[in-house]
Automatic annotation (TrEMBL):
<keyword id="KW-0611">Plant defense</keyword>
<protein>
    <submittedName>
        <fullName>Glycoside hydrolase family 19 protein</fullName>
    </submittedName>
</protein>
<dbReference type="InterPro" id="IPR000726">
    <property type="entry name" value="Glyco_hydro_19_cat"/>
</dbReference>
<dbReference type="GO" id="GO:0016787">
    <property type="term" value="F:hydrolase activity"/>
</dbReference>
<keyword id="KW-1015">Disulfide bond</keyword>
<dbReference type="Pfam" id="PF02839">
    <property type="entry name" value="CBM_5_12"/>
</dbReference>
<dbReference type="InterPro" id="IPR023346">
    <property type="entry name" value="Lysozyme-like_dom_sf"/>
</dbReference>
<feature type="signal peptide">
    <location>
        <begin position="1"/>
        <end position="29"/>
    </location>
</feature>
<dbReference type="InterPro" id="IPR003610">
    <property type="entry name" value="CBM5/12"/>
</dbReference>
<keyword id="KW-0378">Hydrolase</keyword>
<feature type="domain" description="Chitin-binding type-3">
    <location>
        <begin position="34"/>
        <end position="76"/>
    </location>
</feature>
<dbReference type="InterPro" id="IPR036573">
    <property type="entry name" value="CBM_sf_5/12"/>
</dbReference>
<keyword id="KW-0732">Signal</keyword>
<dbReference type="InterPro" id="IPR016283">
    <property type="entry name" value="Glyco_hydro_19"/>
</dbReference>
<dbReference type="Pfam" id="PF00182">
    <property type="entry name" value="Glyco_hydro_19"/>
</dbReference>
Amino acid sequence: MLRRLLTVLAAICTVVGLAVLLPTAQAGAAPACVAAWNSSSVYTGGMTASYNGRNWYAKWWTQNERPGSADVWRDEGACGGGGTTPPPTPSGFVVSEAQFNQMFPSRNPFYTYAGLTAALSAYPGFATTGSDTVKKQEAAAFLANVHHETGGLVHVVEQNTANYPHYCDATQPYGCPAGQAAYYGRGPIQLSWNFNYKAAGDALGINLLNDPYRVEREPAVAWKTGLWYWNTQNGPGTMTAHNAMVNGAGFGETIRSINGALECNGGNPAQVQSRVTKYQQFTQILGVPTGSNLYC
């Protein structure tokens, strides 16, 4: 009724040359995001948490049940300025610590989130190139391959110790100064062979040829070796895994760059499927599509 009276008044005032400002509907700005959900926290009924750009309300006691995945959480709507994109993480990485923990619930404590984010400065183009979707797709692709290589970030070193003496190419001019059996697989992409330790160390400014054990002692060094391979090495493929993701070649090409000689073109479809399945899960956690060309 009040609105109708104001409208009539506006019409009258228009005739006599007066102006009346009617109240306008305000755009519904989304509320601020409450504290981010933490997989290790206990929430009781009535407590709230934010996750993936939305606020959530706990109906009853819960722990480790991700908002949106269980009926215990009630969706309170978008937060943080009206968008569905969550605010940037403190580290600047497109994967939050809560999402990282969700991806690797059984990880070895050696593989810390802090170690990963500390390593990012070595390759500033990683997960920062292209659209927000591409950035998250690259992060998901890297972490999916890492998950496969390490059994979910469980293994820091190669488990088959019988292989250890076979990773020394003594024909290299620098040889194997750390010992015949020192260059076994370590880290998130299981760096192996003396020539790879030499190349990675040179690129990162770390003397890994003489002290390859740093990759299993220091989380940030371990993550840097994984990022070194991802960003600079074609492996059996025709491009780096980084270029595969930012240039639209697709997740399948990252598999080819990492282990394509053994897995692609029908070599081991079960291994390929393992990587693809994890990538699909991780892109879902990050809220982005997988893109095309998933297989190699």
